[in-house]
Design a protein that fits this description.
single chain, 248 residues, Rossmann fold, 10 helices, 5 strands, 53% helix
Length: 248
């Protein structure tokens, strides 16, 4: 039964007194940190980073950085962004624009035989389902896990997630607990109560350690199987996934 605030009875206090300014800094910072790590991993592996992928990554890092700086200026933590703006503009100028390419030269999409083989290979992979409120962060995690040969489903629309998860029966769930939002707790409660989903391993992430501690304290109702505070190192994320379900 809901109360006057729309929360379910017995649901955790979701930290609604935390200022929006903190979240407006931490969220883009998490995206920026993850982008840098993903690019580093790909460069260290010698992976082929296409011009379009690189351009998109730089654009998202630029957006995240400017959001952080703007909020810090609003809080009077920074008094000037002239130097940073100039540096960002130089980065943008040095990155080539997206390369569309010749459709006839595209490999996986244009080659039906390769596509069929790829589909068969993917069917045997472990499936990670990620629920997070940031489309940019979801994109980074999707790229990271696909690089590691996991199958990945991502969504930022929590209200319909339970039915999708129940149908998909993924190997692992990664769920973000967000300040001031009840939907993540409601989803956890559904997952833990339903016979069809109660045994799916869950990795909980949040920018607020207090929310993760609340989930730990009420493990039977809302607890996960592992916990990570954002922003986190992508290697730590992969280590947690490997501990829960093994490497892909």
């Amino acid at each position: 039964m809901g109360n006057a605030n729309g929360k379910h009875a017995g649901a955790p206090d979701n930290g609604g007194d935390v200022t929006g300014s903190e979240n407006r800094i931490v969220v883009p910072l998490t995206v920026l940190f993850a982008h840098v790590q993903l690019l580093r991993r790909r460069l260290e592996r010698g992976s082929d980073i296409g011009s379009e992928d690189l351009h998109k990554a730089v654009e998202q890092m630029d957006t995240a950085t400017r959001a952080i700086v703007a909020e810090m200026q609003e809080l009077e933590i920074l008094t000037s962004r002239v130097g940073l703006s100039a540096a960002l503009e130089r980065i943008e100028e040095s990155v080539p624009g997206p390369v569309r390419g010749d459709p006839e030269k595209m490999t996986l999409e244009s080659n039906k035989d390769e596509g069929a083989r790829a589909t068969a290979e993917q069917m045997g992979r472990k499936h990670v389902f990620v629920v997070n409120g940031s489309p940019e962060f979801l994109d980074i995690v999707r790229q990271l896990l696909q690089d590691e040969n996991y199958n990945v489903t991502t969504t930022n629309f929590v209200p319909l997630s339970f039915d999708t998860i129940e149908a998909a029966q993924p190997s692992l769930l990664i769920i973000d607990l967000v300040i001031g939002e009840q939907a993540g707790w409601d989803l956890l409660g559904q997952l833990r109560r339903a016979v069809s989903t109660k045994d799916i391993p869950i990795l909980l992430v949040s920018t607020r350690p207090a929310l993760l501690q609340e989930a730990k304290d009420r493990h039977e109702e809302f607890g996960g199987d592992s916990y990570l505070t954002k922003p986190f190192d992508l290697d730590d994320l992969l280590d947690n996934i490997a501990q829960l379900i093994g490497k892909a």
